[in-house]
Amino acid sequence: MHKLIFMEDQKYLISLLKEENCPKWVIDHSIGVCKKANEIAINFKDDVDLNLLTSGALLHDIGRSKSNGIDHGIIGYEIAIDLGFSEKLANIIERHIGVGLTKYEALKFNLPLKNYIPLSLEERIVSHADNLYDGVNEVGINFTIDKWMRKNEISNKSILKLKKNHEELVLQFK
Q1: Which NCBIfam families match (predicted)?
Q2: Are the C-beta atoms of 57 and 80 separated by less than 8 Å?
């Protein structure tokens, strides 16, 4: 269950991003998020499916091949399903936006009405690893908070959830 995905499999997933016409920065970003997600996963040993985690991290932004909007997670979910990937992997892609979106927040962003909250440990780790990247650069939690506050689209509740996730997924193991 927790053996690391083979390098050939990672190359295949990266080739899928290229085939879907993801920009180079998205591919580089996804590789960085994958590395960060695997670093975080070390804290959880046998509780994480590293195959699923690594695949989800590499493909989390596949929807950016068609949109750079907040809907890229939903589009990515559809692409993953169309490519024959599991629902578990597709859920990582769909639920990785910010700290997830409630039904109310989805409505605010004109997304289909449902919860997009990361539920599984793999979903939570990929979402959080993504929040620790700004483009192709790894950043700290304070950078992300400052960026979200500048956008003024993110609620204080989301910032508190980001801090809580950071505590639960990263800080408690230091």
Answers
A1: HDIG (TIGR00277)
A2: no
Closest C-alpha among 55, 144, 57 to residue 98: 144
Contacts (Cβ under 8 Å, ≥6 apart) of 11: none
CA–centroid distance for 125 within its chain: 8
CA–CA distance, 97 with 16 (Å, rounded to integer): 21
Q: In CATH, what number is assigned to the domain containing residue 129?
A: 1.10.3210.10
Could you tell me if residue 59 is inside a domain?
yes
| 170 vs 71: CA distance, rounded Å | 28
Q: Among 16, 67, 49, 23, which residue's Cα sits nearest to residue 120?
A: 49
Q: pLDDT tens digit string along 29-83?
A: 999 999 999 999 999 988 999 999 999 999 999 999 999 999 999 999 999 999 9
How many domains does one find in the chain? 1
Which residue shows structure tokens 């908070």?
Answer: 145
- What does the block give as tokens for 160? 């508190």
Exposed, middle or buried by CB within 10 Å (0-12, 13-18, 19+), for 167? Answer: exposed
